[in-house]
Design goal:
heterodimer, A: mainly alpha, MetI-like fold, 14 helices, about 0% strand, B: mainly alpha
């Protein structure tokens, strides 16, 4: 491993670690600095002064800020993330762990769907640039971007669960893998649209390169040329864009889980919101943000390994 | 000369008739909506709950028999108020911080960029919800605050990047040679040159804010006292099986508005932003 690569990796890791520290502090400050008293939010303004004082104490909101920060950092460092306010015998971490696999399942299904649709569609549009194929792919991509997922979900339910009965209705306990299809389409459509546009643009650029011309001159078959030579090189920028969309994917998961009444991190987060279970809200935000930083770090590192030019910047 | 200009203007306008028409329609409805609405959007009429579209109720009725056309018109007002406020606040904060960071460089730049990175580590909706969770009964002003909390970042990034390139240009060097104060250089010479990319971003960003407000309301976190498209869509989703027209009407209003702003943003980008 070269010194340049090592320095690049060290730099990225340190920057990600600093961001995580910042995230922890920001989440902590959020609860304390945003106008609005969590005690009011939980108990309402009719509560007796004694109840309010007791809650303030149990949330540790009566302690000085540095003490609160220390205790919060302690909860984060120990991995418990503190205790749920509504279910004091459970840690926030255990509640998140219980539902996390469901969200990962949904996100992976959406990712898979988006890539599986976008790459062939984008590549086809680029190879057949200016033809009906290209226009069709571009129209599909624009429509996919324009339709909000809070509307797409109900429309899909109406069409495919109610009218056609191909897929189970949300909340149907008997449904197996088929229940994943409509949520994955709802969550994956916008990403598929973005990736299709990116793949098309990247492919058009790569197909103009000298080495593609050289490969053609050597008599390499059309399919091998597009898949083996052009697509491989076009994927790098598309991957970056795909990774940058991870935050949107997690935001979308919150919405999708609510529409399809699915268990998951989003539902836990929303339920905690309505119960004003501040420690759980805090924990979910923290987990999602750290996850996001970690994935971006992973992409940065992979990028540095794949493409030596990146290390120089 | 005048005719050539008029012809060019027409060329501009006709290039994006759909997007621009949607945006103009949105603002007209938001402005006049409450005046022309046939009913009070909260007027209860239980005898006609979830009625299909008819001459009496052009878009049908929803929960408790409220007139959907009136609800859509009042919803446009809310979307416009939130959109204008959030874009305005985000733009003011973002452009100031971005121009400052780009022009001053050094520690200021590191602080602003670091803070922007930090805010962007949170998926947008998640941060918005976390902020609203701290308020007992979120009102319009809280929704605006929550959306502006991360709305400023994109404007700051664009302003910073533009300022960095502008700083190296000769005419900025000239202001320095002439002994202008940095504040005058930034306000009189940097900011006007940021206008094009910022206007492009603000247009597309407006659509994103409308969608974010609808999403928060859809999730039940919007301003409870106002009529919102997102809340309407949520009610429609609950009765999707029997009365699909409620969700169709509400969703179409949101989708058309967001689509209009996106189209107009793309169109402006082609014209204002040569990159």
């Amino acid at each position: 491993m070269s010194a340049g690569l090592l320095r690049y990796i060290a730099e990225r890791v340190v920057r990600a670690a600093l961001t995580v520290v910042g995230v922890v502090v920001l989440v902590f400050l959020l609860v304390r600095l945003v106008p609005g008293d969590p005690v009011d939010a939980i108990l309402g303004d009719q509560a007796s002064p004694e109840d309010r004082a007791a809650l303030r104490k149990s949330l540790k909101l009566d302690a000085p800020l540095p003490v609160q920060l220390e205790s919060f950092v302690g909860d984060v460092a120990s991995g418990t993330l503190g205790h749920s306010f509504r279910r004091p015998d459970e840690t926030v971490a255990s509640r998140i762990e219980a539902v996390f696999p469901d969200t990962v399942e949904l996100a992976l299904a959406a990712l898979l769907l988006a890539w599986a649709l976008a790459v062939p569609l984008g590549a086809l549009a680029a190879v057949r640039k200016g033809t009906g194929w290209d226009r069709a792919a571009s129209t599909v991509a624009i429509a996919g971007l324009a339709i909000p997922n809070i509307w797409l979900g109900p429309l899909l339910i109406l069409g495919f669960a109610v009218e056609l009965r191909w897929f189970p209705f949300p909340g149907d306990a008997r449904a197996g893998a088929a229940a994943l299809v409509l949520p994955a389409v709802t969550l994956g459509t916008a990403l598929a649209a973005i990736l299709t546009r990116q793949t098309r643009a990247a492919m058009i650029e790569v197909l103009d390169e000298q080495y593609v011309l050289a490969a053609r001159a050597r008599g390499i078959g059309r399919v091998r040329l597009v898949v083996g030579h052009a697509l491989r090189n076009a994927m790098l920028p598309v991957m970056t864009v795909g990774a940058a969309q991870l935050g949107a994917l997690l935001s979308g998961a919150v919405i999708t889980e609510k529409i399809f009444e699915r268990r998951g991190l989003g539902t836990l987060f929303l339920d905690a919101f309505f119960a004003r279970d501040i420690p759980v809200v805090q924990g979910c935000v923290l987990v999602v943000a750290v996850l996001y930083v970690a994935v971006n770090l992973g992409v940065d590192l992979a990028y540095g390994v794949i493409d030596p030019r990146v290390r120089l910047s | 000369m005048l005719r050539a200009r008029a012809a060019r203007l027409y060329g501009w306008l006709s290039a994006s008739p759909v997007g621009l028409a949607l945006v103009v329609a949105f603002f007209v409805l938001a402005l006049l909506g409450p005046v022309v609405a046939p009913y009070d959007p909260r007027a209860i009429d239980l005898a006609h709950e979830y009625a299909a579209p008819s001459l009496r109720h052009l878009l049908g009725t929803g929960d408790n028999g409220i007139d959907l056309l009136s609800a859509v018109l009042y919803g446009a007002r809310l979307a416009a108020v939130v959109g204008v406020s959030v874009v305005g606040i985000s733009l003011a904060i973002g452009v100031s911080l971005g121009a400052l960071a780009g022009y001053a460089g050094g520690l200021t730049d590191h602080l602003v960029t670091g803070f922007a990175d930090l805010v962007q580590a949170f998926p947008a909706i998640v941060l918005n919800i976390a902020i609203l969770a701290l308020v007992a009964e979120p009102g319009v002003e809280h929704v605006i605050l929550a959306l502006a909390a991360n709305g400023w970042v994109l404007y700051a990034r664009i302003a910073r990047a533009q300022t960095l390139t502008l700083r190296e240009r000769d005419f900025i060097d000239a202001t320095r040679a002439l002994g202008f104060r940095p504040s005058r250089t930034v306000i009189r010479h940097i900011l006007p040159n940021l206008a094009a990319p910022i206007v492009v971003q603000a247009t597309a960003g407006f659509g994103a804010v409308v969608l974010a407000e609808a999403t928060l309301s859809f999730l039940g976190l919007g301003p409870g006292k106002s009529v919102s498209w997102g809340a309407l869509l949520d009610q429609g989703t609950a009765v999707l099986l029997r009365f699909p027209h409620v969700a169709l009407v509400a969703g179409a209003a949101i989708a058309a508005t967001v689509f209009g702003f996106n189209l107009t943003g793309d169109w402006l980008r082609d014209r204002l932003d040569p990159r």
